[in-house]
Specification:
It is found in: Cell inner membrane. The protein is mainly alpha-helical. It is 55% helix and 6% strand.
């Protein structure tokens, strides 16, 4: 933060602490000049106020908390840009990419820095890493168990489900049914293939789908005609003349979707004949996809979760529509 803001935070924090201490000292002094326990002459609703001091236990506790606060602010960051005498920080700061994060993490672990997040990750790996490996590997500890076999293991799929809820549910939903622009993982309609190996590859390395915009090539009439043809492929009622013209223009789409429009797993091109739509199946949505194109990105999880966790996660995703 800026120097001004740092000074402002420091002054406010210390001013509040010492202000409370000053108020406590002021209230502890007898300003009445009267004997302790004598009536002050102030009554309300039949109750007379006596000249009694603050409770000693309360005063001592308050002083202890003031001292504790000062020690805490000296040891840990809390006063503007002051980093604290211990050098503690909650996480690696100012990282802007996964590469920078890994470099900062390695540096923190090598130098034994007090980075709370890194220490918790190390502890978590010590406690849970062995369990992940036990579930993911064969008894020899060298070979991964078949994903299809893990999908039949109730304990392993529960672990995979937790990983899914923590990392994938933000896009695909807690029920894995997806949403507009995010695939439904329960319907067996796969953009890049639904075999165990294909699912794991998708999770490890991510996917980047890109459909070009065709408005400049097709024109507005061409967009409408191709949309009519595409909608007709899944049994929708459309203008037959427009659909026929759109079929002739569909050649530009067939390079990815195939002449039969059933898609291509190698390119992530969806099947246009099954009535399942990633970005919506209304005429307006289909025309918008053709006119402006679509771009979808799924992040790679290998460097975030590690292959052991990805293997278990892949088994859970595979189980969603292969294990009943």
């Amino acid at each position: 933060m800026s120097t001004f803001l740092s000074v402002f935070v420091t002054v406010i924090s210390l001013g509040t602490i010492f202000g409370c201490l000053a108020l406590l000292i002021w209230c502890s002094r007898d300003k009445m000049g009267m004997e302790e326990g004598a009536p002050t002459g102030h009554t309300f609703d039949g109750i007379s106020e006596l000249n009694n001091p603050l409770p000693k236990w309360w005063s001592y506790l308050f002083i202890f908390m003031v001292v504790f606060a000062l020690f805490y602010l000296a040891l840990y960051p809390g006063l503007g840009n002051f980093k604290g005498l211990l050098g503690w920080q909650s996480s690696n700061q100012n990282v802007r990419s996964l590469e920078e994060y890994h470099a900062a993490s390695a540096d923190a672990r090598e130098q034994g820095k007090l980075v709370q997040y890194e220490r918790e990750m190390v502890k978590a790996d010590e406690v849970f890493g062995a369990k992940f490996r036990e579930l993911a590997y064969e008894p020899d500890g060298q070979t991964y168990r078949a994903i299809a076999d893990i999908a039949m293991d109730e304990n392993a799929t529960k672990v995979g489900q937790r990983l899914f809820l923590q990392n994938c549910a933000q896009c695909h939903g807690s029920d894995a049914r997806g949403g507009r622009g995010f695939p439904n993982l329960t319907d067996a309609d796969w953009l890049y293939g639904g075999t165990p190996e294909q699912i794991k590859t998708t999770l490890l390395h991510g996917r980047q789908g890109a459909m070009p915009a065709w408005e400049a090539s097709l024109g507005e009439d061409g967009v409408r005609e191709v949309a009519s043809y595409v909608l007709s492929l899944s049994g929708r009622k459309v203008d037959a003349v427009e659909a026929q013209k759109g079929q002739a223009r569909f050649a530009v789409c067939a390079a990815c979707h195939g002449m039969d429009a059933k898609g291509n797993h190698a390119m992530g091109a969806p099947n246009l004949t099954d009535g399942i739509w990633l970005y919506g199946g209304s005429r307006a949505a289909v025309e918008d996809s053709i006119r402006n194109g679509r771009n979808g990105v799924m992040p790679a999880w290998k460097d975030i979760l590690g292959e052991d966790k990805v293997h278990l996660l892949a088994s859970y995703v595979y189980s969603l529509n292969n294990v009943k």
